[in-house]
Hints:
Blueprint: H1 12-46, H2 61-83, H3 87-106, H4 112-132, H5 134-137
Helix pairs in contact: 1-2, 1-4, 2-3, 3-4
Amino acid sequence: xxxxxxxxxxxxxxxxxxxxxxxxxxxxxxxxxxxxxxxxxxxxxxxxxxxxxxxxxxxxxxxxxxxxxxxxxxxxxxxxxxxxxxxxxxxxxxxxxxxxxxxxxxxxxxxxxxxxxxxxxxxxxxxxxxxxxxxxxxxx
Length: 140
């Protein structure tokens, strides 16, 4: 039988630490997922998959595919660094999520539901990293 301690009984600094850790872990998981999806999408575009439409920002699907492939690798790398509590990782995660959100908007006419879903995931990740990442959100 486990005991459940109500959060109201915890000191404020402990509550803040739990919230910070939860959001940073969530942001790292979102970075992993979005990065993995970008890698899959990049491989599909570079491989000229039949499900990828030619109505995207670049006329050349290879350029768009390489962008998503490299960007996905950077996002996974940033996700690992966020989990390891690297201070610089928050900035890299914010930038990659912001650029990825803009890139997803460019393909919203082709895949509207998918683009908006990934856009929402990017926004949540940015929120977690802005609020709880970096030197301001961590104690030395």
